[in-house]
Amino acid sequence: MDQENSPLPSAVSVPADTGVIAQATAHYQKRLSDLRGLFLDAADLERRIREEDDPVCYENYAFNQSQAEGDIFFGTTIIYPGKVGSEYHLTRGHYHSKRDHAETYQALSGRGLVLFEREDGTTCSAELTPGKVTYIPPYWAHRSINTGDVPLVFLWTCPVEAGHDYAALGGRGMRQVVVERNGVPIIEDRPSG
Amino acid sequence: MDQENSPLPSAVSVPADTGVIAQATAHYQKRLSDLRGLFLDAADLERRIREEDDPVCYENYAFNQSQAEGDIFFGTTIIYPGKVGSEYHLTRGHYHSKRDHAETYQALSGRGLVLFEREDGTTCSAELTPGKVTYIPPYWAHRSINTGDVPLVFLWTCPVEAGHDYAALGGRGMRQVVVERNGVPIIEDRPSG
C-alpha cells in the first residue's frame, strides 16, 4: 500500500445496545451447533439445539479496509445470554496467528469476562464491563464469556495482520471454565477426563 | 518479547466524563504557550496566555505496556473547549513515523472533528462523536478539534511502533482550519501568507 491507494478516513457508527455495524465489511454468526465440543455438558447442548431450534450463541461484525500490515481493523462481538448446563455462553477463543500481536476489547453493553491462557499453561482473567478497556497482550489466548442476563456487546480493535489460530487450543477451548454456582459466575479449572 | 515476559492482561478504567486513566503509564499537558505558531490569530493567542495564565489546551494519558512491535497501546486525549480568535482548540496533529500504520479514535464525551491530510495534499475530515469509531487509515496525518462547549474526551488505540512525526506538517499544522462562523464550526482552507 502507498498513500494513493490507502483507505479513506471514516466515522463508523457502533451502537452500544445492539452492536450492529451497518458499515460492516464482514459478518458471521455462530450457533450452538457450531460450538460442539466446547461446552462441558454435551447432552444439554444437544437438548438446546433440538428444543430451541439451534439458537445463535454469538455473532461478529468487522470493519476492515485493507489487509496491509500496519493497518488496524475493528468490530463488534455480541454474545447472547444463556447457559449450556451451568456454563455461560462463550466464544471459541483463539491465539493470534502472530503470537506477538495484541488487541483491545471494550464492553459497550452487558457484562462478562475474558479468560486468558498462555502456551506455558499460565491462566488469568479480566473483566469485560462498560467503562473499561480490556487489554489483550501479546502471547495470550483469549475467550469471552457473557455472565449477564442481557446481550454482551463488545468492540474489539486489532492489527489486521494478527490472524486467528483456533487450532492451538485444541477442540475444547481453554483450561478454565466459567460456570454458575449459587447464582453467581465462578471461574474453575476444567474437569479432567 | 516472548511469552514469559509478555505483559499481563488487565481491565483499565477509562472514565467517559473525565478521560483520566488512573493506571496511565504516561501523561502530558499542552498549554496554549506550547502551541505557538499553530493558530491563525497569534495576537489573540498571546492575549489568552497573558490574561488566562496560560491555560491547558489539551492533555493526554497513555497506557503502554511494551515497545515491542505487534503490541497495541491506548489512551485518552482531553481537549478543553475554547477558541483562539475564531479557531477552535486543537491538537498539534501528526503523521505516524511509520506511515503505513493506522489508528482508531472514539469520542467518549463532547464532540469534535478530525482533520486529515496526506502528503500528496489530499484533505478530508471525519466526525468525532460518541457512538462512532473514527478510523484513521495509514498515510493520513490527523489533528483533533473540539467544536463543542464541554471537554472533548476521546480514546485512541494504536500499534506501539507507529510513532509520531510532528515535523512533517511543518510548524503550522494542517492545510485546513476549523473556525466558528455565525455560531457554527466551518472547515476552511488555511489563508495563504
Please characterize this protein's 3D structure.
The structure is a homodimer of 193-residue chains. By secondary structure, chain A is mainly β. Helix content of chain A is 5%, strand content 44%. Chain A contains one helix and 16 strands. Chain A has one helix at residues 42-51; strands at residues 10-13, 26-31, 56-63, 72-79, 83-84, 87-88, 95-96, 103-109, 112-117, 123-128, 132-136, 141-146, 152-159, 164-165, 176-181, 184-189. A six-stranded antiparallel beta sheet of chain A has the order 2-3-4-13-8-11, with no helix packed on it. A three-stranded antiparallel beta sheet of chain A has the order 10-9-12, with no helix packed on it. The interface between A and B is large, with 58 and 58 residues. Strand 11 of chain A pairs antiparallel with strand 1 (10-13) of chain B, so a sheet runs across the interface.
Keywords:
homodimer, 193 residues, mainly beta, 3-stranded antiparallel beta sheet, 1 helix
The oligomeric status of these chains comes to: homodimer
Number of helices of chain A: 1
- Beta content of chain A: 35-45%
**Category by helix and strand content of chain A:** mainly beta
What is the number of beta strands of chain A? Answer: 16
Q: Globular, elongated, flat, extended or rod-shaped: what is the shape of chain A?
A: globular
The largest inter-chain interface, given as chain pair and residues per side, is: A-B, 58 and 58 residues
Q: What strand order characterises the main sheet of chain A? A: 2-3-4-13-8-11
Estimate percent helicity of chain A: under 10%
For the largest beta-sheet of chain A, the strand count, sense and barrel status come to: 6 strands, antiparallel
The N- to C-terminal Cα distance of chain A equals 50 Å
Overall pLDDT score of chain A: 96
Low-confidence stretches of chain A are none
- Round the Cα radius of gyration of chain A to an integer and report it: 17 Å
Q: Could you state the order of secondary-structure elements of chain A as H and E?
A: EEHEEEEEEEEEEEEEE
